[in-house]
Write the structure tokens for this entry.
Amino acid sequence: MITFLSLLLTGLSTGAIYALVALGIVLLFKAAEVVNFAHGSLLLLGAYVTARTWEAVGFPTAVALGVLVGALAAVIVERLLANPMRDAAPVALAIMTIGVDIVIATELNRRMGPDIVVVGHPWGGTAARLGDVAVPANRLIALLVAGALIVAFLVAFKLTDWGVAMRAAAEDRETAALLGVRLSRVTTLSWILAGALAVVAGIFLAGSPTPGLSPAVGVIALRALPAAILGGLDSTTGALVGGLVVGVAESLAAGYQDQLSFLGRGFGDVVPYVVMIAVLLVRPAGLFGTREVGRV
Amino acid sequence: MLIVRDVDVSYQGAVAALRGVSLSVPAGGIVALVGNNGAGKSSLLRAVSRNLRRHRGEITGGAVTFDGEPLRDPGDCVRRGLIQVPEGRRIFGRLTVEENLRLAAHGAGKKLVPDRVYDLFPVLAERRRQPGLLLSGGEQQMLALGRALVAGPRLLMLDEPSLGLAPQVVARIVTVLREINADGVALLLVEQNAALALSLAQHAYVLELGRVSLEGPAEKLRDDPDVRRLYLGATAVAT
């Protein structure tokens, strides 16, 4: 039972991190009409900046720098590449983001080499105890921070003018434009938010129990993609639920892998995709997605 | 106020949709633009609101000015008081009634004051928290008009406001349009329903195959034998 609770808590915290990343992916799909495969690289880039600067400027400033660089990189991708291509087919845009992903990931790979770069969280590898259940403090803080960010995001999405504008742009860009909504601002803002959220997730992903930042973290972050898809790519609620489902499933599969050994070792790594396929078989539009064949 | 001079519009560099169209709407006036499907009415509205690019079209000749100045983009139109009520209402179904209004006010750079709209259309006040997709066709048209009103219009361009609506709803919309006009807002009424458009307007244009084939005072057009035959139907009586 204690193992189960501990795995559940670990799963929820990983899930909350995935949810942050998935939220960005959904936001970009809805408001900017891009499926962004470069999300893992943006995350890696921001976390890398934090890892390389914390010794010099201290952790809080380093986090701010990382988030800033992640958001800035997202804006550069938007202004330089996505915006000039905005009339192109969605598939072309998606493939462009794959290209961006490869470029950024390759460069970071080169810079990091085989090293594992420590991100320097002040809480390090300490474990927090909730009753008999022990989890890394990093994971607990991640759960709280991600939860707070998600709530703040959803409240803003629901209540503020830009939230209304984003939802309107997601539904019908032409009418939103005819009502005076500045679509380019909505799009840019989506990229900024998505990039910033991803970097926050990256900083937690590179902490305990993970030893530090390595190119693998960018790949792990891409598990948010099945999370976003199984939730329904155009639903913010779906991103949250999808993130949590993937996180918990992965954690349980990894924790009970001895019992699941007939599936082979390392099953936890493929669980996000297995869960996604299972969900899509039953609900092709995802758990909360709109049934929509194509966007015109 | 709005002047369209010798405008040519073509799509994808080839298909000519408008050829040498000229039209003007005076401040506070009501102008009707009548024509069949495909005559170029929507292209003209797109040319005015600078919304052609999205449809792979462009203005290849002539000029459009509003208060003597060219219009730059849809947002520029809205913020200068040139507001379009699009064909088919185009309500945001996943936004609530009030969010639809809020968006329109925000787009025009104004703070939302919905009282006037709720006074004109009490049913919208009752349904303010409901998503737009639950509204009936008539209520959607009211909301589309409401969106235009909260943006602070000086000239309203209405694209087929009577399309698909029950007669009593059309009557209500017409009453409201007269009230809006009485407040000094100019109207450009684009309609297939020529009887309705010609009864409201002072001046009218008939668009045929991308050209203005006829123009003049609305009363005169109502009595024109060709207009009666082509647009008002043999037995229609314009009142």
Notes: Chain A has one domain: 13-223. Chain A has a mean pLDDT of 89. The interface with chain B takes residues 161, 164-165, 167-168, 171-172, 174-182 of chain A (CB under 8 Å).
